[in-house]
Design goal:
This protein is an all-alpha fold. The protein has one domain. The chain is built from 15 helices and no strands. Helix 8 runs parallel beside helix 11. It is globular and about 85 Å long. It starts with 7 loop residues before the first helix and ends with a helix. One of its GO terms (cellular component) is plasma membrane. It is found in: Cell membrane. This is CtaG protein. Keywords: Cell membrane, Membrane, Transmembrane, Transmembrane helix. Its main location: membrane.
Length: 302
């Protein structure tokens, strides 16, 4: 059956779109019109503006477009959502906001100690990957998916902890704590390893593990997250198999594989950037050392 039967609101989430437009407008007001109210402000660069807008566009694509609806019908789309939201949108969002805006937020007396604790590399790694893995335990996943409040809360919490996880790698604070080149590489490898158990549970399961994709009544309740209740009552649906010919187990396994593939692509890209940046700095150090040695020899000969 076509997903268009769920209606415009379920397909395109107009309220969420309006919210993101307001957030984007607020971003440009703060970073352009009102930036002189921030200590150490700098002109917004085209790159920063483009990164932030890209994060909003991609966020709407995975949480407001028909992909969100499909994520409640097929587990594959759900995992695409998760991977893109936390591994693509979050780093774009982080780098799109100028450092002087982050400084204003972080230096707030209430935020500062909390932020300092949760952005410690080891803690940030364990908490994000732990929350992600716990979320995909069947008993937790099904319980959260059947409550609008819990689902919203968990999604926002994961987004915040994803920010903490990416912060040691990507923050541009002049006086902020940053990982060195080799430590960044180790951090990325550790991040990839910690996410593997959750993907492995999904990929190698011998039977469908999520009731919200295999049990009709649980699925209908979970669909209320994105489809008005009145619409669902009028349709008299029997299950997600009406909209997909893929067996539930294969859909579940494919979702786990796609999550791992997207993770490897993103982390591989970040790893390449970190490695080449580290190699460039090492070459600069060697060049400076050679230049100093040559200068010393020249002075000695004189």
């Amino acid at each position: 059956m076509p997903i268009s039967i769920f209606g415009f609101q379920a397909l395109w989430s107009p309220y969420f779109l309006g919210f993101l437009i307001l957030v984007t407008a607020g971003y440009f007001l703060v970073t352009v019109k009102w930036r002189n109210k921030f200590e150490g402000d700098e002109p917004l660069t085209k790159r920063q503006g483009a990164l932030f807008v890209a994060s909003m566009v991609i966020l709407y694509a995975v949480k407001g477009s028909p992909i969100d609806l499909l994520g409640h019908i097929m587990f594959t789309y759900h995992m695409i959502q998760m991977a893109v939201l936390y591994l693509v949108v979050v780093p774009l969002f982080l780098r799109g906001i100028p450092w002087w805006v982050w400084k204003k937020i972080i230096d707030h007396p209430v935020v500062k100690p909390v932020f300092a604790f949760f952005t410690k590399p080891l803690i940030a790694l364990i908490l994000f990957n732990g929350l992600f893995s716990i979320y995909h335990l069947p008993i937790v996943f099904d319980y959260v998916k059947m409550s609008v409040a819990l689902h919203t809360l968990y999604t926002v919490a994961l987004f915040i902890f994803a920010l903490f996880m990416w912060w040691p790698l990507l923050n541009t604070m002049p006086d902020g704590k940053k990982l060195g080149g080799l430590r960044k590489i180790g951090y990325i490898f550790a991040d990839g390893i910690l996410l593997t158990p959750a993907c492995g549970l999904i990929i190698f399961a011998s039977a469908p593990v999520y009731a919200t994709y295999s049990d009709a009544s649980a699925w209908i309740q979970a669909m209320e997250l994105c489809v008005p209740t009145g619409t669902l009552q009028q349709l008299n649906l029997t299950g997600p198999e009406l909209f997909s010919s893929m067996p539930i187990l294969e859909d579940q396994q494919l979702g786990g594989v796609i999550m791992k593939i997207i993770q490897e692509i993103v982390y591989g890209y970040i790893l390449a950037l970190v490695f080449f940046e580290w190699a460039r700095k090492e070459r600069e150090k060697e060049g400076q050392a050679d230049e100093a040695l040559l200068q010393h020899q020249t002075n000695y000969m004189k």
